[in-house]
């Protein structure tokens, strides 16, 4: 179809982000460009050094890595030798797209470069000089303000801003507020957290039916099916599943494992609490059934002999990720090509017109705006597979991809720091528990107000869990309990203090219990006891 190529969303077509009050900059590095309708952060780059060497654009162009030449790039007025850095670059060889020229146009598409503290730290070390023919006015005109499509006006975004806490606008990232998560068994679509890496591809509703997905084997296209064909040829199924970002509870990991064990430390993401989480009813077709139908039988017969095969997913935005083929081909994993959420069309921020849903897998693997499904060895396909979303423990020699969420539970009410009378004798606690990718079911949830010395069973609201077509429970169950509070002693009336913490832990039907503190994993998928401090006054 017309939307099968990422080239349709080349950086040159991108405009800027939403109008609004100018936020505080993330750090001293960022310069904000604003007018009545646009807002965009752009890093000014390392400052020029007295006496540094001047280079012409022609000299830089000759250093594009060909014929044994070094690899230089430019950003604004700076010239950088990245020859030795390529092997360390999280994006791998993607950086070669800018070899011998400006990286600016790539960065205005992949906006994370403008808000990551790693970027200035690296480039300052790689700077070798500046351009002799750089024109600030021309640079600002080409790269300064217009960087993203008018995606901010899309359906669902306005409501999402009201119901979430924003981390960034470019790329758009939000956390669902606890009160929104606690309000219902199924998370409203417009309240679900958003984690984008690039601008949202603009696919019109009149184009959705003819949107095509390319199915490839070992780099060769087998067939291409549009959404209308998929819905006509395969049975529609509904699966209720938790969607969770790999970095959910990053702040808890820092609290209990320390800054040195977090890849989120010293960034905006270090403040991620429990809000990159939601429970959605997805509707689509089983990916297992589609692959059985499009891949020749003789090729399928080889799969059991080739254990290292992966299914790679590509989105219209250029984002890619992958999971083991054996996971997809286990029909009981309930993997979907989903076209609807909560019985309505997907919202643009959540992958309209089609996305991958992989219950129990981290959200990063569940590619949105799907345009390609490819089977083959993992290879060096993208930074999101090669570098990110891996076990990043310091003492781990091989950083394996994180493919499964753990058993988890979180308290949604009370919220951290919520104040109660020192004379209060009871406390109502509400939250959710979910099995992650364990293939087990949550059996019980316990709550403690005395730092784990004693525990009380919460009541799980099994009766409100939606009935669907999943092979086993994939969504969450809400829990609630009324607790007796111990007396408050020795606290001044005018100040109060965090006298108690409320803890929760879940156990599944295989006997697995949520740990008191989970392994650091670089900050990913923390699932230690959820501990909520409350204040008595």
Helix content: 10-25%
Mean pLDDT: 86
Please tell me how large the radius of gyration is: 25 Å
Structural classification: alpha+beta
**Main β-sheet description:** 5 strands, mixed
Shape: globular
Count of DSSP H/I helices? 12
How many DSSP-defined strands? 27
Q: Strand percentage, roughly?
A: 25-35%
Q: Major sheet: order of its strands? A: 10-9-18-13-14
* pLDDT < 50 stretches: 1-38, 492-496
Measure the end-to-end span.
62 Å
Question: What is the topology?
Answer:
Layout: E1 31-34, E2 39-42, E3 53-55, H1 57-61, E4 72-75, E5 78-81, H2 104-107, H3 118-126, E6 127-131, H4 136-144, H5 157-163, E7 164-168, E8 173-176, H6 178-182, E9 212-217, E10 220-226, H7 227-233, E11 237-244, H8 250-257, E12 277-286, H9 287-294, H10 297-300, E13 309-315, E14 320-324, H11 325-328, E15 336-341, E16 344-345, E17 355-357, E18 370-377, H12 383-386, E19 408-413, E20 419-420, E21 426-434, E22 442-448, E23 456-457, E24 459-460, E25 477-484, E26 497-508, E27 530-536
Parallel strand pairs: 3-6, 9-18, 20-27
Antiparallel strand pairs: 1-2, 4-5, 5-6, 7-8, 9-10, 11-12, 12-15, 13-14, 13-18, 15-16, 15-17, 19-21, 21-25, 22-23, 22-26, 24-25, 26-27
Q: What can you tell me about this protein's structure?
A:
With 537 residues, the protein is α+β, with helices and mostly antiparallel strands. 14% of the residues lie in helices and 28% in strands. The chain is built from 12 helices and 27 strands. The protein has helices at residues 57-61, 104-107, 118-126, 136-144, 157-163, 178-182, 227-233, 250-257, 287-294, 297-300, 325-328, 383-386; strands spanning 31-34, 39-42, 53-55, 72-75, 78-81, 127-131, 164-168, 173-176, 212-217, 220-226, 237-244, 277-286, 309-315, 320-324, 336-341, 344-345, 355-357, 370-377, 408-413, 419-420, 426-434, 442-448, 456-457, 459-460, 477-484, 497-508, 530-536. The strands form 7 sheets. It has a 5-stranded mixed β-sheet with strand order 10-9-18-13-14. Strands 11, 12, 15, 16 and 17 form a 5-stranded antiparallel β-sheet that branches. The protein has a 5-stranded mixed β-sheet with strand order 20-27-26-22-23, with no helix packed on it. Strand 1 (31-34) and strand 2 form a beta hairpin. The longest helix has 9 residues, at 118-126. It is globular and about 75 Å long.
């Amino acid at each position: 179809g017309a939307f099968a190529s990422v080239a349709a969303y080349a950086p040159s077509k991108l405009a800027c982000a939403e109008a609004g009050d100018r936020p505080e900059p993330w750090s001293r590095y960022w310069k904000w460009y604003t007018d009545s309708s646009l807002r965009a952060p752009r890093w000014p780059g390392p400052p020029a050094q007295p006496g540094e060497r001047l280079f012409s654009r022609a000299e830089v162009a000759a250093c594009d890595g060909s014929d044994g030449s070094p690899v230089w790039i430019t950003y604004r007025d700076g010239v950088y030798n990245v020859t030795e850095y390529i092997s360390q670059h999280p994006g791998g060889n993607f950086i070669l797209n800018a070899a011998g020229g400006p990286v600016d146009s790539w960065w205005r598409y992949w906006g994370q470069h403008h808000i990551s503290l790693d970027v200035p730290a690296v480039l300052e070390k790689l700077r070798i000089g500046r351009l002799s023919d750089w024109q600030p006015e021309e640079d600002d005109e080409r790269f300064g303000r217009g960087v993203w499509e008018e995606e901010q006006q899309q359906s669902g975004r306005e409501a999402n801003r009201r119901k979430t806490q924003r981390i960034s606008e470019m790329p758009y990232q939000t956390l669902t507020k606890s009160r929104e998560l606690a309000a219902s068994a199924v998370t409203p679509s417009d309240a679900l957290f958003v984690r984008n890496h690039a601008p949202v591809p603009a696919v019109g509703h009149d184009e959705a039916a003819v949107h095509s997905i390319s199915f490839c084997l070992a780099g060769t296209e087998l067939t291409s099916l549009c959404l209308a064909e998929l819905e006509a040829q395969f049975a529609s199924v509904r699966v209720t599943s938790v969607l969770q970002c790999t970095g959910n509870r990053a702040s808890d990991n820092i609290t209990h494992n320390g800054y040195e064990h977090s890849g989120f430390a010293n960034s905006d993401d270090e403040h991620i609490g429990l809000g990159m989480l939601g429970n959605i009813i997805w509707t689509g077709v089983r990916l297992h059934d589609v692959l059985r139908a499009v891949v020749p039988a003789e090729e399928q017969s080889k799969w059991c002999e080739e254990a290292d095969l992966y299914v790679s997913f590509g989105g219209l935005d250029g984002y890619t990720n992958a999971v083991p083929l054996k996971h997809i081909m286990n029909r009981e994993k309930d993997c979907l090509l989903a076209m609807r959420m909560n019985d309505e069309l997907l919202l643009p921020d959540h992958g309209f017109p089609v996305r991958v849903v992989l219950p129990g897998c981290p959200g990063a693997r569940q590619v949105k705006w799907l345009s390609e499904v490819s089977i083959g060895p993992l290879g060096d396909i993208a930074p999101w597979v090669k570098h990110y979303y891996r076990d990043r423990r310091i003492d781990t020699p091989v950083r394996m991809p994180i493919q499964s969420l753990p058993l988890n539970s979180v308290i949604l009410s009370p919220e951290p720091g919520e104040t109660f009378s020192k004379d209060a004798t009871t406390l109502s606690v509400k939250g959710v528990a979910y099995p992650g990718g364990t293939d087990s079911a949550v059996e019980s949830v316990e709550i403690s107000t005395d730092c784990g010395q004693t525990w009380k069973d919460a009541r799980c609201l099994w009766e409100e869990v939606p009935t669907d077509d999943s092979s086993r429970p994939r969504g969450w169950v809400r829990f609630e309990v009324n607790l007796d509070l111990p007396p408050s002693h020795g606290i001044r009336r005018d100040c109060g203090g965090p006298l108690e913490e409320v803890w929760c832990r879940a156990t599944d039907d295989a006997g697995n219990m949520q740990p008191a503190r989970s392994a650091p994993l670089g900050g990913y998928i923390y699932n230690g006891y959820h501990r909520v401090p409350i204040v008595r006054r």
